[in-house]
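Below is how a single chain appears once it has passed through the pipeline. First comes the sequence as given, then the structure the pipeline wrote out for it. We keep one example in the README because the format questions we get most often are answered faster by looking than by reading.
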Amino acid sequence: MSLTIRGFLSLSVVVFALSSCNPEAKAVSGMKVQIEINPFVMSSGFIRVAFVPNKEAYYHVGIVPVEEAPDTTKSSSVKGFMSLMLDLAYADYLYWRSNLLYEGVSPVAEFPTHSLQYGQVTRNFTLLEPGKDYMVFAFAVDAQTNKPDGRLFTSYVSTSITSEYEDLYFEYRVRGFWDYVYPLFFSQMGMGEQLVNYVPWVGATADSVDLVANGYDGPQAYFLELFGEYQFYHDDSNIHFGIYAHNNNGLGDGSSYTLFKEGHTYYTGLSLMDGYLSKEALVIYKFHWKNAKIQLLFGKDDVLTTKW
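Resulting structure:
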């Protein structure tokens, strides 16, 4: 899994740049979007939402704290809100597009294909605050002009005060240049230990040489700073669900270029990301990488308990 000292991105972040579908833009007149919040997949820092449109067309979805929601009784407030949300999405798209063009990637998906939804979709909204009220929204977009078109559809939800998944833990495996993360949860309903694919988590691997060179007082300080930045900047590109695998061969999946080096000591930090980040949720595994034949497995009893 590894990451450079600065990041741990999902292995599918830029797939759309080369292989996104490009459905035909159709009229959105009379389009409605049903918003279905899953009551069984939500907690203090995340929710899962299904969006079900009544026709095929592009539309935009998102979530905002209730205090940032528009006055739905005033059309001017609603129109201003939709325009702002679309402008913010377009700004994110331009940043993403410019980075790919700078790297020489071409062709790059257009804004509707990359940033908007099409057909029925399910979205996970993460990095939410505990005990807070939110508005989930959706509205149709004219893909020819990239302007809002039609009504604003909304649904309201409140996150729980505490996490429902504080007992989440991780098994971690290193096999040669590959490493794997398995998020696990012990069910209280008699189902025993289960792999969990719907609870958000974050992870990173750092070389001890880099930690020392950058002046960190142990790996815990580094991981708390890094994961704290994800929350502060609302960087959900680093959020993972379920099993994750990464090849640390200097090429990886495009998210990092870490190369495991013989004789180096590494630290892998893993944490539930449900509500506010805490030291208690962070687990760290330490290992010495010998060669491409190495095979290691870490569980609850192998969590680092010393500073280094």
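The chain has five helices and 15 strands.

See the next section for the split statistics.
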